[in-house]
Design brief:
The protein is α/β, with parallel strands linked by helices. The protein is built from 13 helices and 19 strands. The strands form 4 sheets. It has an 8-stranded mixed beta barrel with strand order 11-12-13-15-16-17-19-18. A 7-stranded mixed sheet has the order 3-2-1-4-7-6-8. The relative contact order is 0.08.
Length: about 525
């Protein structure tokens, strides 16, 4: 072997080993220098990581859930919490004002006509509280007035002849009526949160107006009311419209915005029929939807309201309308006298007026339905609550050619079975027993003709009067909605019945067990 060839590997081995040692040594030195420099210049600041707002909020909400032991980390978190706590303190007064609306904060705007004022002012007298309620009646012409008549302030609407009106089936009065809220606003009343509009034949339960509006923030835009009971009416006008006769409410800030643009808005809709559809058109331009409250009743029906009032939904009754069209709610008296009697109950427990309760007389197999403050009905046999809470068609549709499918709610026919015709007891008197803190209502049987019944069971015609006992409950609508329960109480006389109405017990249901 050539000696030179044999030494070459050994020479490369020694040189390569020195080279790798040198590289290794230099790498260690660079690492030590870099580490020393980093330790000397590091101020322990967190690296800024850009986060979007939602991520920051999520992290802030998530971090307090961890168990922290580091004092410095806890201090940082405490500093992060402080701005949030300051924001909460600023927000507390806003939320605390939501449920303190009172009657003094509400102004009523009543649309009236000089032609019907003599009759319809009697309706207003039933619910108006002089020196307590605030509001204005807007008329087309001046009328004769008397001092101390117990009516709102009367104003004459501004001239609307400059506005176009092209609907051949309607009346130009719709233009002035649609401006009632704006004109009331311009009167400059102080401490107003809500404007409530209605017609001169709209009857308000003012305490329930307060209860309903107290649920809403008066500083926001709200347009509150209810559509018609007639499906045909709603199809022709709008399901998104609050019907003026049933009454509607507009929050103060929304009324301000409406007043700024309403005259221009009205000019854009000359073909609309009434005032309430013009109002809804302006609400649509403002982008404010209808907030529906079922207690505002347009009552676009004819005939007897018994079926509707005896099965009132579980919500405060706010208004009744079209009293000139329907029959008096209490038979044998005119509409004004009927309202006077109804308001005897309203004054004692307005939150419970017309609220339905259902119970059963087990020994006699009777079904009992109470519309508190108005009527009690007894039916032979056991009728389910599902059926009893459905209005009986004692009334006719606004469009007389329409059948029962033209309502916006379920109804049931008036029974033709001779044994299931209800025995009706109307409220005849009511009073407050202050000692026992309960109302005592007397309901007398309506003397109507009843067909002969062959069922071998006790007949309710043996009952002449029913006494209903109930404690007033002003806070019932602060709780989740539920019908009151009722129970049959012992009675010493066979011609009378005692019923108790109140909050349901635990596990109590409205059905025979």
């Amino acid at each position: 072997m050539n000696p030179i060839q044999q030494r070459a590997p050994y020479a490369c081995y020694g040189g390569c080993r020195s080279y790798f040692l040198w590289v290794f040594f230099m790498t260690i030195m660079i690492y030590i220098i870099y580490s020393s420099t980093h330790l000397l210049t590091d101020d322990h600041q967190d690296c800024p990581i850009p986060l979007d707002i939602s991520t920051q909020k999520n992290l802030q909400n998530f971090m307090p859930l961890t168990n922290l032991s580091s004092p410095s980390l806890q201090l940082k978190l405490q500093e992060q919490k402080e701005p949030e706590e300051e924001n909460l303190e600023l927000a507390v007064p806003l939320s605390s004002q939501l449920f303190d609306t009172e009657l003094k904060h509400i102004v009523f705007g009543i649309a009236a006509s000089s032609k019907s004022w003599g009759q319809r002012k009697q309706y207003i007298k039933q619910w108006w509280r002089p020196s307590v309620t605030r509001g204005v009646v807007w008329l087309d012409k001046p009328v004769r007035t008397r001092r101390n008549e117990g009516l709102p302030l009367i104003q004459i609407s501004k001239d609307t002849s400059r506005f176009k009106y092209t609907n051949r089936q309607g009346d130009r009065s719709a233009l002035r009526i649609s401006r009632v809220v704006s004109e009331t606003l311009k009167l400059g009343m102080e401490d107003v949160r809500w404007f409530v509009m209605g017609d001169d034949d709209t009857v308000f339960v003012v305490d329930n107006v307060v209860r309903v509006l107290s649920k809403y923030d008066h500083r926001r835009f709200y347009y509150i009311g209810s559509p018609s009971e007639s499906h045909t009416q709603n199809m022709f006008f709008s399901y998104a419209m609050a019907y003026g006769g049933g009454g509607f409410a507009i929050s103060y800030p929304l009324a301000i915005e409406l007043a700024k643009m309403q005259d221009r808005c009205i000019q854009r809709y000359p073909g609309l029929y009434g005032s309430d559809d013009r109002m809804q058109a302006c609400m649509a331009e403002l982008g404010v939807p209808l907030t529906k409250e079922a207690g505002f009743h347009q009552y676009d029906v004819y005939g007897n309201l018994l079926g509707l009032l005896a099965a009132h939904p579980a919500t405060p009754m706010v208004t009744i309308h079209h009293l000139d069209v329907v029959e008096p709610i209490f038979p044998g008296m005119n509409q004004v006298k009927s309202l006077e009697r109804l308001f005897e109950s309203i004054k004692l427990d307005s939150s419970s007026i017309m609220q339905q309760s259902i119970c059963y007389h087990h020994n006699r197999s009777w079904s009992i339905s109470i519309s508190w403050g108005y009527v009690v009905q007894i039916v032979r046999g056991i009728v389910s609550p599902r059926e009893l809470e459905m209005p009986t068609r004692t009334f006719l549709n606004w469009y007389r050619s329409a059948d029962y499918t033209a309502y916006t709610f379920n109804t049931r026919p008036v029974t033709r079975h001779p044994c299931q015709k209800p025995f009706i007891f109307y409220m005849s008197s009511t009073r407050l027993d202050k000692g026992r803190r309960q109302t005592v209502g007397i309901y007398s049987r309506h003397r109507g003709n009843h067909p002969a019944c062959r069922w071998k069971m006790d007949s309710p015609e043996t009952i002449d009067s029913i006494t209903v006992l109930k404690r007033p409950d002003d806070l019932r609508w602060h709780k989740s909605p539920r019908r009151d329960c009722c129970r049959v109480m012992p009675s010493r006389r066979s011609s009378s019945m005692y019923l108790w109405v109140g909050n349901c017990r635990e596990n109590e249901i409205s059905m025979q067990q």
